[in-house]
Amino acid sequence: LLPRGRAAPAGGGPAPRSGARPRAAHAADAGAGVLLRQTLVILVLYPQAVPSGPTSGMDDDIVSLVKSIVPPLTSKKHKGQDGRIGIIGGCKDYTGAPYFAAISALKVGGDLSHVFCTKDAATVIKSYSPELIVHPVLDSPNAVEEIEKWLPRLHGLVVGPGLGREDFLLKTEVIERSKARDIPIVIDADGLWLVTHQPAVIQGYQKGILTPNFMEFTRLFEALPMNSSDHQRSVMQLSAAMGNLTLVLKGEQDLISDGSKVYSCSVEGSGRRCGGQGDLLCGSMGVMAITEIIMNPSVVAAFGACSLTRQCNNQAFQRHGRSTTTSDMIQEIGPAFRKLFES
Ligand SMILES: NC(=O)C1=CN([C@@H]2O[C@H](COP(=O)(O)OP(=O)(O)OC[C@H]3O[C@@H](n4cnc5c(N)ncnc54)[C@H](O)[C@@H]3O)[C@@H](O)[C@H]2O)[C@@H](O)CC1
Ligand SMILES: Nc1ncnc2c1ncn2[C@@H]1O[C@H](COP(=O)(O)OP(=O)(O)OP(=O)(O)O)[C@@H](O)[C@H]1O
Ligand SMILES: [Mg+2]
């Protein structure tokens, strides 16, 4: 942890926004529990008012905000109200990544999870789980239209897990048409390859969230004319250069920035770094981003999903140790979610 320099800016995390949608109208009990205070450490680094040097302060208001976006489970709702999510990804080489993202979206409480993938990946993904709706459209000649048919029904989109790096035109079109629908778009993995080459595709879109690992971040950072020697500052610079969309640099601490502040999520995970954890993260984030109750829902969703992923890693590791894999972490989503956000 960085030393505590000064208090967080007034109000701490993003401020409440008026005109909340009914789905998100529920506000969970305010205030984090003792456990959360111990485990969720949020540093607000570089508040905009003091751009010249590192400044940090503890702030757990954001935990209350994450709790407040958790929709209540009531008998008054119909299927779909708690989230219909689309995952764009899945090709011959990668079927696990879109599966992990899509199943994680369901496991955090989303109602329906759609995967848009290539034909040869579809049967494989379907056979992993009967809970997913799988559309074998990505390599069809009218892929954009096939996806667009579903867009009006989707509340959020995750672009990239197992998507492959070819066909920029298709991905650009899907992102452009999703932006036109004003839905949250989480971009991960091969979606970030596109953003590295064409930043304008998502630049300035306030409901966009980028979730690079260190390598993906380095590629993005080098593609834009910036230079900085420390991670926190780089994350904030890149977010600002991308038009203040939310950026999550995954790592030992997850660093989250909206271009004016950097939040750090240090929930204890484990030393186990198996592939697929980033897919769990972006899938769960896709659902958490569906809220309009707060001023910067993307930051809150990012923080919530980072905390959850790390907590799942911690719990799975306690059970399975070295043999922990992402499927074991997915089994922990329910208990981890309860522990973090429903207690
Ligand atoms: N089971 C599956 O189907 C999985 C498929 N995946 C997919 O695989 C494709 C390629 O993803 P990659 O993540 O391999 O992307 P890259 O091909 O850009 O590789 C990133 C590389 O960076 C390395 N790396 C990560 N963090 C690092 C750090 N801090 N320092 C140094 N090196 C670091 C990783 O070992 C990896 O080899 C994507 O489509 C992705 O979604 C992954 O999501 C993993 C699981
Ligand atoms: N060194 C670390 N210590 C603790 N947690 C970490 C560490 N690195 C990553 N994580 C956690 O794992 C999650 C996934 O990050 P990671 O860097 O593995 O993503 P990724 O490379 O995109 O994964 P994937 O294999 O799914 O593509 C992050 O949100 C973070 O919580
Ligand atoms: Mg990844």
TrEMBL record:
GO MF term set: ATP binding; ATP-dependent NAD(P)H-hydrate dehydratase activity
Record: residues binding ATP: 250-254, 269-278
Residue ranges of the region described as Disordered: 1-24
Residues spanning the membrane: none
Superkingdom in the source lineage: Eukaryota
Domain YjeF C-terminal: 62-340
InterPro entries: CARKD (IPR000631), Ribokinase-like (IPR029056)
Enzyme Commission number: 4.2.1.93
Pfam families: Carb_kinase
Reactions mediated catalytically: (6S)-NADPHX + ATP = ADP + phosphate + NADPH + H(+); (6S)-NADHX + ATP = ADP + phosphate + NADH + H(+)
Cofactor: Mg(2+)
Binding, (6S)-NADPHX: G162, N213, F214, M215, E216, F217, T218, R219, D279
Top enzyme class: lyase
Gene3D superfamilies in the cross-refs: 3.40.1190.20
Membership in a protein family: Belongs to the NnrD/CARKD family.
Function per UniProt: Catalyzes the dehydration of the S-form of NAD(P)HX at the expense of ATP, which is converted to ADP. Together with NAD(P)HX epimerase, which catalyzes the epimerization of the S- and R-forms, the enzyme allows the repair of both epimers of NAD(P)HX, a damaged form of NAD(P)H that is a result of enzymatic or heat-dependent hydration.
Name of the protein in its database record: ATP-dependent (S)-NAD(P)H-hydrate dehydratase
